[in-house]
Design goal:
Elements lengths: L1 H4 L1 H22 L13 H7 L3 H22 L1 H6 L5 H29 L3 H20 L3 H15 L2 H13 L4 H25 L3 H19 L5
């Protein structure tokens, strides 16, 4: 869109779609009920941070969302090292997001059916770590797109699992507070890893770093409790 119609027109279209979603949500959205926090206090947030799962998942969000944001920020130079042009790099990167859309539907559904989160988080982190390594040696649009689709399928679907486990770890009343911790750490991770990726010796080394960090995420996930 940016290439064909310009940056400002692209933003205008994004704004229109966002407004349409807002209208639909206002007209059709309903509260689900349940116990809500009457008043937010810093003390409550610090209390939630005493929960082991929330702390571990916050660190995992720092790593996972940080990698996601940093990778998409620098996706063009990363993929140029693998034989793609600027135009084909952007197109190929959509395979990553499409895989994530399908994965975020299928894997949480399987997790719900099994009644467990941890085994699926293990699977997502291990496969994602391996695929980031394979991505570092993949070359050409077809191979890179195939790797990115499967990578997105497992990598992005870890987020809804983490958010759900975080919320259920502290109960319905403090679910929002727990998940806000994950989002806070994820945004800090995004800033840190965007800068770190740019400072590395080569763009390929960012993929190897991502594989290593996801291996760390797997080790952290071993400490979680259902």
């Amino acid at each position: 869109m940016t290439v064909s119609i310009g940056f400002e027109s692209m933003l205008l279209i994004y704004g229109i779609f966002a407004f349409v979603v807002l209208v639909f949500f206002y007209l059709l959205g309903n509260e689900t009920g349940g116990e809500m926090e009457e008043e937010y206090r810093l003390r409550e947030y610090l209390e939630v941070l005493k929960n082991r799962n929330v702390v571990i998942l916050s660190v995992i969000a720092f790593i996972g969302v940080g990698i996601f944001t940093a990778y998409l920020t620098w996706v063009e130079p990363v993929l140029e090292e693998h034989g793609l042009t600027v135009e084909t790099a952007g197109l190929t990167a959509t395979a990553f997001l499409l895989g994530g859309i399908f994965g975020s539907i299928i894997i949480p559904a399987l997790s719900d059916r099994a009644g467990k989160r941890k085994p699926f988080l293990y699977l997502c982190f291990i496969i994602s770590a391996v695929l980031f390594y394979i991505h570092a040696i993949a070359f050409g649009m077809a191979m890179v797109a195939a790797v990115l689709f499967v990578l997105g399928f497992f990598f992005i679907s870890a987020l809804p699992l983490a958010l759900d486990l975080s919320a259920t770890s502290v109960g319905e009343q403090f679910a929002g507070t727990a998940n806000s911790s994950l989002w806070l750490f994820s945004q800090v991770g995004s800033v840190v890893l965007i800068v770190l990726f740019e400072s590395m010796a080569s763009w390929n080394s960012t993929l190897l770093l991502s594989a290593g960090l996801l291996a760390v995420s797997f080790l952290l996930a071993l400490q979680l409790k259902e």
